Amino acid sequence: MRTVGVEEELLLVDPETGEPRAMSAAILARAAQEPGEEDVFEKELHDQMLEFATHPQADMEKLHAEIVRCRKEAARHAGGIGCAVAALATSPLPASPAVGVSRRYQWMAEQYGAVVQEQLVLGCHVHVAVDSDEEGVAVVDRVRPWLPVLTALSANSPFYQGKDSGYSSYRSRVWQRWPSAGPTELFGSAETYHRRVSDMVATGTLLDEKMVYFDVRLSEQYPTVEFRVADVCLHSGTAVLLATLARALVETAVRQWRAGEEPADPSVSLLRLAAWRAARSGLTEELLHPATMRRMPAETVVRALLDHVEEALAGTGDLERVREGCAELLRDGNGARVQRELLERTGSLRDVVTECVRRTQG
Q1: Signal sequence span per UniProt (predicted)?
Q2: How many CB atoms lie within 10 A of CB 32?
Q3: Closest CA relative to residue 279, chosen from 291, 289, 287
Q4: Most buried residue, 8, 257, 306, 322, by CB count within 10 Å?
Q5: Model-level pTM?
Q6: pLDDT score of 269 more than 70
Q7: For 127, phi and psi rounded to 5 degrees?
Q8: What is the architecture, at CATH level 2, of domain 4-361?
């Protein structure tokens, strides 16, 4: 059974006002003083962000338990300095992002200007183990049409700089401003993939391979395929649902590759439209169906994803759990819908943040 690891980026906020706070350095210093915590949490581009990474897990219940534990530990360390953490993919309240002082982040700030200042956005990255780069590229080529569905399921960023953006996942729209971000054409082989990455870095536009921000890519650090299209999820259970679906997509793609099935080849132009539609609509309206690239109800498209990976989910014993998780999201709403309902009920973005702080640990 393939192992899965999750990276989550959390927003640091003032527990009273809900405004973002640039406190990541102090939190990391506290965590580093405790055995076993020094490698869990990491600094991100902006000082109002804190990232953690789980260990690779084959058992999804263990993965869920680790995500919950890491969230609680992040909240404990933040609380020790009068701060709080929220699993929000954008700040609902206005923010003035503070770029980290590392040489890398300062290079990015100088190179990309206003784009860096806009990137106080927080994602959930899922790593799924693969046996080789060839297998990994076969996955990258075959999961492309399904990635917007993951964005729709995870959408958790309706507000940006104090206003309703009109999107369910505005984070994904902001993220697309990086020059290397977005969907890719078919690669066909690991050799072609690595040559493309090398050519991109050689332009001097990117600092290194880490800045190749494909929607799904080979990890340059681990033997994994990394899914990068999801918002950080308000509820930990949604993050586990995404990880389970990502593993099933990988397993399904590998089986197709081994059987000699060619990948579907929708154009990058259509994939960009599908990603935009998922960011705009989330689960409340229509999405582009991966097989036809035509608009259909979100429930129909989610059902198509479940049908596509059914055999893989059944093989790992995750089918019923995933069906129930998707049904719950479609019924009760993703993070974007929850945030909008909170604002409608309370009339206050501050109260939205306060409740999301509570739910982050719940």
Answers
A1: none
A2: 14
A3: 287
A4: 8
A5: 0.97
A6: yes
A7: -105, 125
A8: 2-Layer Sandwich (3.30)
